C-alpha cells in the first residue's frame, strides 16, 4: 500500500536528508516511503548484505557509519532497541556527531510497554509510565536519555508491530500457532504502513510548531489475540487448532512470550488521530491483514 501512503504524505523540503538508524522491519518501511517521496535517505543495518542497508552501524562490536553519511542530516529516526544494560546504543556511540548535525527532527521508536500493566484499561500519553518488565524499564531509561539529549526529539510509542511478512498470517502458515484464551486479555497493534505514515505526518506538523514530546501510534481497535487469528484463518481459508486456556499454554511459553501476556492495556491514539489529524491507513486488523494477504500473494 505504499502508493496510498505516498498520496497522503507530505514530502520534506528538497534539501532534506533523512538518516534511519536501524533499518529493520519498521525502518525499511519508513525508508521506502521517504524514497518514494523523493527524500534522500541513508539507512543503517548491522550488516551491509542485509536488505536496504546503505551503511553499517553496529554497537556490538562498534562499527560507526562513515562520516559522509552523517553530514547534513536534517531528519533522524532511531529504530534501535536499548542495549542489555539499558543504555541507548545510538546516544552512546553517536551523540557528539548527532549534535553537529543540522537536525530539525529526531524521532525515537519506543514501545507502549513503558505504560506497564493497566489491567485492560485505556492508556494515553498523559498516563504515568509504570514499566514493570526489565526490558520496558530499559526502554523508559532510553526515552529519558533521548528527551534530555538536547536534540529535537519526538518519542513515538508503538504497540505490537505487524505488516507484510510478520503477521498473524505467518503465525498460522508456520504451523506453530495455537489460539490462546485468557479472559479479558487485549492487545493493541499497529501496521508498519501507519508507522511510516505517522512518522511523516509528525515531521510535517513539527515543522509547523506542533510537536508533542510523546505520541502513541496505535490503531483504533485493540482486540484479543483469538479474534485476530480467527480473521487471519478466514482470509487464508484454513481452520485453526482448538483454543487452549492460558493456564495450560503458559506452562510452555518462553519468558518473553509470557511477559507479553502478563500486561493488559488498550492504547489510545486520540492524540495522533484526533488532535494531530493523522488518518490511519489500517484503522484495524481487518484492513491490515487484508493488506498482508495481498502482499503474500504478490
Ligand atoms: N516488534 C514489535 O512488535 C515492537 C513493538 C513496539 C516497539 N518495538 C520497537 O520499535 C523499534 C522498531 O521495531 P522493529 O520491529 O521494526 O525492529 P527490528 O526489525 O528488530 O529492527 C531493529 C533494528 O535495530 C538494529 N539494531 C539492533 N541492535 C543494534 C545495535 N546494537 N547496533 C546497531 N543497530 C542495531 C537492527 O539491525 P539489523 O537490521 O542489522 O538487524 C535493526 O535494523 C525497535 O526498537 C523495537 O524494539 C517493536
Short characterization:
The chain has 298 residues and is an alpha/beta fold.
Describe the structure using short key phrases.
298 residues, alpha/beta, Rossmann fold, seven-stranded parallel β-sheet, 12 helices, 15 strands, binds NADP nicotinamide-adenine-dinucleotide phosphate
The level of helicity is 25-40%
Oligomeric description of these chains: single chain
CATH class division: Alpha Beta
Bound molecules: NADP nicotinamide-adenine-dinucleotide phosphate
Number of helical regions: 12
Taking the alpha carbons of the first and last residues, their distance comes to 12 Å
The count of domains is 1
Looking at this structure, what is the CATH superfamily?
NAD(P)-binding Rossmann-like Domain
Number of strands: 15
- Helix and strand element order: HEHEEEEHEHEEHEEHEEHEHEHHEHH
Uncertain stretches:
none
**Strand content bin:** 15-25%
Mean pLDDT: 96
Shape: globular
Question: Describe the biggest sheet?
Answer: 7 strands, parallel
Strand line-up across the major sheet: 3-2-1-6-7-9-13
Structure description:
- By secondary structure, the protein is an alpha/beta fold.
- It has one domain (2-163, 190-219, 265-281): NAD(P)-binding Rossmann-like Domain (Rossmann fold, 3-Layer(aba) Sandwich), CATH 3.40.50.
- It is built from 12 helices and 15 strands.
- It has helices at 2-8, 25-36, 67-70, 89-100, 134-147, 168-173, 192-207, 225-236, 246-249, 255-261, 270-275, 285-297, and strands spanning 17-21, 40-45, 55-56, 58-59, 62-63, 75-78, 105-111, 122-123, 153-158, 160-162, 180-181, 189-191, 214-216, 244-245, 266-267.
- The strands form 5 sheets. Strands 3-2-1-6-7-9-13 form a 7-stranded parallel beta sheet, sandwiched between helices. It has a two-stranded antiparallel sheet with strand order 4-5.
- The longest helix is centred in the last third of the chain and has 16 residues, at 192-207.
- The radius of gyration is 19 Å and the shape is globular.
- It binds NADP nicotinamide-adenine-dinucleotide phosphate (NAP).
